[in-house]
Design a protein that fits this description.
Blueprint: E1 11-14, H1 19-30, E2 37-44, E3 53-58, H2 60-75, E4 80-91, E5 95-103, H3 106-123, E6 126-132, E7 135-138
Parallel strand pairs: 1-4
Antiparallel strand pairs: 2-5, 3-4, 3-6, 4-5, 6-7
Length: 153
């Protein structure tokens, strides 16, 4: 099986992510495709600022376009990128985000994971809310406008 025979899409889950299930599946799916590096980044909701957790809304058409562009960029380096993200509420100490890069060479994977995670934070169409006393409060101070998003920004 060639790593580009199937289309890789973002994996979206309701609430906190099943980290071991996702990362183990990625490892099992991609270890035999001659990748020398399989790197994951796991984002955990921190208990800070009096929040009980975070809540997320995702605009999937833009997320898919953003992710497809990253897949093309990774393919140029004989690599792939992977992503899983939560929709809805994720309580403190649960995981809301997992990113992965698979590459034959570790340097490529290390560089891509850094660029991918940073670009995700800046440009993915995901809106974050604080959960405080059961209420969702838009986290505007920790949000970034999406270039060209018009009313979505």
């Amino acid at each position: 099986m060639n790593q580009f025979e199937t289309t890789i899409k973002p994996e979206l889950y309701n609430n906190g992510l099943p980290v071991c299930e996702i990362t183990n599946r990625w490892y099992e799916n991609y270890k035999m495709i001659n990748y020398g590096a399989i790197i994951t980044f796991v984002g955990v909701v921190r208990d800070e600022g009096g929040i009980d957790g975070l809540s997320f809304d995702i605009y999937e058409p833009i997320l898919n376009s953003w992710f497809d562009a990253w897949q093309k960029k990774a393919k140029e380096k004989n690599a792939i990128v992977l992503i899983a993200h939560s929709k809805g509420d994720v309580l403190n100490h649960q995981t809301s985000y997992i990113a992965g890069v698979c590459s034959p060479k570790r340097r490529v994977a290390l560089e891509l994971i850094d660029e991918f995670v940073e670009d995700f934070k800046a440009n993915a169409p995901i809106w974050k809310y604080d959960i405080i006393d059961g209420n969702r409060i838009y986290a505007q101070d920790r949000s970034t406008k999406i270039e060209g998003a018009g009313i979505l920004s």
